[in-house]
């Protein structure tokens, strides 16, 4: 009867989905996961049975964030449409058993294959690649135990035709690089730990039999990203040794992302000298030690650059304008620029300058004029203080970049000059940021809508105007210049944090409310905003930014109490599209009220809470997991005892693992000495994308990998 009434209602309204043209239906179906299309939707009627197998829908199969897919679904999918698949992305499918890879052999016509984060042994890789004769793009992990001698001649023949290779190394090895004799694009991710699980120090020397020389003669793009650790540096030098002997003539992108100190050697100096003589680059990123104090940038030649990263370099604004921007010539092609931690990049010189001194607005203006097509800009981790000159505030100059899609700024850069120079606000509820005795501040009240907030000074602020001019911004990061996460990579948890910049003391609720103008905002990061009193601006964001998918909040307001909890809970009730939530705040109480509000986020998939001295209610967590069926990652690093954490983690896994194959749960005391051992078992997808805090704007060139 219900079906009949629904059909009659459709007829009366004149709306029937099946009456749409095939083109419209195909466009609608393109938003449905391929596993649902093939295994479910196509069984509903004859028309959909035909459309679901259209080449436009089966040509590319994306399983990388299809957390409901399991081994049986992959097997059936490959059996039904394996021959029609030309591009298959299984990146980060850590929950699938290694035997799942055997079914990929049905995809005889595969051209691109991404298996990063999947469990693949040498023998399985050999068997699979032996059947994929058309493969031209490959992404894999190289784990301990990998043995290149187990690769068959047929497998090596396939690898010899591969043009693009992305390789993540968890052990010192060349992997399959020596077999790829036609490489044009090589992406290397070094995730090798300095110590084994047993505590033994590892060596960066490659194993005997793996000293085959990589073939770089056709290389166009070389990218290497290093996790912290000396072993990663040792191994990447072996990869670079061949490049230093003979630089590929067609090389146009050379990028090395290395944290900390990565010293330049004679071999790397020869490589850079050879690049300066023989190639013209379109993308460049180098370790800070290779640029600082050298005249390298003066000699390198650029063609039509689209990406530059000078993260953490001491490059001055004068050098940036003269040697890179070249007086504003030929930089219209630049779409992505990373100046994170480049503390002197907006000053004419760095020799006698303090990091907190005012910027030279003429340098920023030259940058904005020359690089008018920028889409991604990172200016975080530095003190960029504007002077009192009218019309030359950093926010006013950045408002000219109408094409920006992602932006990262330090907190102290967005304050109005008058507010930054005067003493911080003396509101009655403002409490000093200390870890001392908690202070009772009473019940917080805050305006509930955008109009009320606008009346509190913000429409005239330079940051309000900036947000109003960047209507199409999708990613925004506002991070304190002295902020550091309590949970860094491969180290014990940080117990003390540096105080915020003096200029940042006035940044709070009104600036957060200004962000609500970004209608198309998808990702938001706010860290170390000291003047958050109630968090009222968060409610406005929840109401206005309906496309928000990723939210990361850290150290907002006073440190001894979560003053914005009430506003956060109100905000979460409106975040229907939110998928990733990361909260880092001392003394955070993850109780029943919080999880009840979070349950309104029906699309939530990943949750991470980092809180020194934080508490949780186990029953509330279990109820939340039961009500939010899409959640597949729950990471909580709190102040609870090891026993409480282990019991809750086991209960969640026992209750929900069967119906959620991708479920990954880590609940552990933040200050426990074994935290780093626990972290190393977290799937790289979650660790890199949400668990570890970092600035992600312009972190890599756009579209580096498909």
Automatic annotation (TrEMBL):
It comes from Oxyruncus cristatus. SUPFAM superfamilies: F-box domain (SSF81383), RNI-like (SSF52047). GO terms for cellular component: SCF ubiquitin ligase complex. Residues 14-61 form the F-box domain. PANTHER family: F-BOX AND LEUCINE-RICH REPEAT PROTEIN 18, F-BOX/TPR REPEAT PROTEIN POF3. Pfam families: F-box-like (PF12937), LRR_FBXL18 (PF19729). This is FXL18 protein. Gene3D superfamilies: 1.20.1280.50, Ribonuclease Inhibitor. One of its GO terms (biological process) is SCF-dependent proteasomal ubiquitin-dependent protein catabolic process.
């Amino acid at each position: 009867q219900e079906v009949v009434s629904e059909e009659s209602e459709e007829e009366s309204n004149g709306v029937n989905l099946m009456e749409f043209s095939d083109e419209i239906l195909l466009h609608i179906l393109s938003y449905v996961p391929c596993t649902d299309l093939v295994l479910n939707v196509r069984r509903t009627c004859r028309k959909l049975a035909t459309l679901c197998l259209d080449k436009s829908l089966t040509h590319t199969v994306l399983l990388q964030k299809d957390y409901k897919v399991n081994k049986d679904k992959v097997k059936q999918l490959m059996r039904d449409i394996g021959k029609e698949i030309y591009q298959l992305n299984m990146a980060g499918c850590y929950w699938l058993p290694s035997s799942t890879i055997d079914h990929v052999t049905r995809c005889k016509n595969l051209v691109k294959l991404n298996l990063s984060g999947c469990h693949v042994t040498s023998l399985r890789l050999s068997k699979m690649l032996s059947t994929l004769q058309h493969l031209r793009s490959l992404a894999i992990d190289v784990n301990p135990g990998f043995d290149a001698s187990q690769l068959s001649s047929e497998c090596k023949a396939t690898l010899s035709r591969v043009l693009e290779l992305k390789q993540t190394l968890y052990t010192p090895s060349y992997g399959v690089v020596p077999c790829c004799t036609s490489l044009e694009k090589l992406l290397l991710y070094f995730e090798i730990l300095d110590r084994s699980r047993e505590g033994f120090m590892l060596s960066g020397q490659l194993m005997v039999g793996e000293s085959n020389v990589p073939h770089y003669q056709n290389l166009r793009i070389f990218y290497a990203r290093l996790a912290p650790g000396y072993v990663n540096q040792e191994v990447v030098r072996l990869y670079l040794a061949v490049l230093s002997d003979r630089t590929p003539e067609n090389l146009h992108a050379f990028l090395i992302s290395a944290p900390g100190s990565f010293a330049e050697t004679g071999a790397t100096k020869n490589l850079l000298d050879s690049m300066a003589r023989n190639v013209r680059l379109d993308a460049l990123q180098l370790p800070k030690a290779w640029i600082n104090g050298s005249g390298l940038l003066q000699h390198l030649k650029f063609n039509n650059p689209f990406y530059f990263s000078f993260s953490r370099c001491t490059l001055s604004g004068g050098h940036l304008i003269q040697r890179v921007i070249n007086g504003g010539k030929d930089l219209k092609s630049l779409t992505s620029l990373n100046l994170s931690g480049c503390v002197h990049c907006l000053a004419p010189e760095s020799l006698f300058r303090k990091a907190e001194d005012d910027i030279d607005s003429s340098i920023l203006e030259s940058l904005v004029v020359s690089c008018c097509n920028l889409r991604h800009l990172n200016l975080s981790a530095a003190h960029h203080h504007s002077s009192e000159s009218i019309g030359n505030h950093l926010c006013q100059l950045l408002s000219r970049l109408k094409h920006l899609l992602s932006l990262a700024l330090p907190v102290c850069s967005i304050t109005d000059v008058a507010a930054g120079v005067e003493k911080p606000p003396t509101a009655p509820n403002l409490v000093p940021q200390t870890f001392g005795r908690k202070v009772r501040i009473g019940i917080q009240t805050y305006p509930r809508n955008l109009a009320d907030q606008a009346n509190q000074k913000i429409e005239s602020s330079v940051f309000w105007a900036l947000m109003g001019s960047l209507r199409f911004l999708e990613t925004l990061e506002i991070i304190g210049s002295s902020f550091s996460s309590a949970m860094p990579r491969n180290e014990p948890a940080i117990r003390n944090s540096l105080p915020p910049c003096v200029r940042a003391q006035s940044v709070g609720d009104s600036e957060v409310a200004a962000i609500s103008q970004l209608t198309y905002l998808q990702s938001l990061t706010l860290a170390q905003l000291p003047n958050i009193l109630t968090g009222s601006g968060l409610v406005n964001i929840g109401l206005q930014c309906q496309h928000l998918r990723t939210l990361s909040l850290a150290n907002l307001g006073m440190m001894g109490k979560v003053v914005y909890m009430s506003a956060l809970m109100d905000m979460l009730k409106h975040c229907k599209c939110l998928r990733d939530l990361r909260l880092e705040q001392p003394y955070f109480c993850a109780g029943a009220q919080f999880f009840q509000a979070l349950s309104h986020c029906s699309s939530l998939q990943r949750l991470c809470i980092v809180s020194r001295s934080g508490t949780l209610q186990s029953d509330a967590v279990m109820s939340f997991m039961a009500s939010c069926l899409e959640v597949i990652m729950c990471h909580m690093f709190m102040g609870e005892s090891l026993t409480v954490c282990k019991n809750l983690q086991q209960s969640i896994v026992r209750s929900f693992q069967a119906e959620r194959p991708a479920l990954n749960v880590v609940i552990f005391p933040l200050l426990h000495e074994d935290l780093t051992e626990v972290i190393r078992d977290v799937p790289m997808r979650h660790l890199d994308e949400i668990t570890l805090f970092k600035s992600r704007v312009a972190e890599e060139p756009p579209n580096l990998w498909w």
